[in-house]
Fold this protein.
Amino acid sequence: MTTDLQTELRKSTGWLIALSILLILLGIAAIFMPGVASVTFTLVLAWILLISGIIRTKSAWQTTGGYGYRHPGRNSKYFLPIVHCLLSIAYRHR
């Protein structure tokens, strides 16, 4: 191995260990505070769904091909991303 590769591996291993310790501590905190963990998980999941729905809607608007679900007589490529956004908003405000 070259020294550059060894240095990069050591740096990456250090970050991996730090992330592992952080995840262990967060897991322990989640065990002792399940209410906070549930609310946090719900909010994070809702934001992920909302952002991915917005990205999918933008992508559908830019797509010019005939991909995706097609309803007879309509181009329904906008339907699923919009439903995705609406469900994530409804999930967040539950």
About this structure: The first helix runs from residue 3 to 32. Residues 69 and 79 are 9 Å apart (CA to CA).
